[in-house]
Hints:
Elements: H1 2-9, H2 34-66, H3 75-103, H4 109-149, H5 154-157, H6 160-177, E1 185-192, E2 197-204, H7 206-209, H8 211-262
Organism: Pristionchus entomophagus
InterPro entries: GPCR1-like, GPCR_Rhodpsn, GPCR_Rhodpsn_7TM
Subcellular location: Membrane
Amino acid sequence: MASSEVQLTQQPETVILEDEGPFLCSACQGSTDPSYQMYNLYLTGVFMPLVGMVGLIGNCIVVRVYLSRTQRAHSSSIYLAALACSDFFLILTALFLFVLEAWRHHNQPFVAWLYVNGTPFVFPMASVFQTSSVYFCVAAAVDCFISVVLPSLKEMCCTPHRAKITVMIIMMFCFLYNIPHAFEVEKVSCWDEAANSTSSQICPTSFRNNVLYYTIYYTYMYTSFLAVGPLCLLIVINVCVVFMVFMKSKSRPTTDLSNKLNK
């Protein structure tokens, strides 16, 4: 899986025409098949914005609810509001990257210009919000774990003030972790065969195509920090919470019965 993606991103280095011809814009394009581009336009360019708008509205409602006067007094509300904010901006960046990419191939010069010039800045931000969404979810789960499994630590750890500090620390970590993404794509000049003129395209940099970098950052670090690691942690936390709730509910009838007998 990893090797195939590396080969795909290394294509731009091998598509220079003979006799030192121009660099083709299609070299960095996923597919030039017209039927696929039309399919991608309907799916990504039309359907995705509709779903994205629902997500944006939903996350705005979530933020409004959890930051209300009654809810923001709970640490869990701070984490859930932060998660909704992160998801909101993640959807925005995804709409920029995917929707504009789908439309720019259909005689939309302004959309193409906006995509090519904006992607080097939007792509790293999308990675930041993807990471923060994962860790805000983990933070909310840890907060629930402490409240249910370790109630003695609840007053010390599960406070709105500590939750806000944790949110800021998570965001700092997400920005630092995703700095390499800022050096992965670049705007390049190329030759557009369809328009028979020079144009611009977004292509992976040599830094992104470096096999050692890809292996360490995408294979090992991504698996540890964004995929398997957080997933395993969430599974363990949820199992512990469910087990503790089950044990408490199982012991409650016995306690109630003993209280009645004592009376």
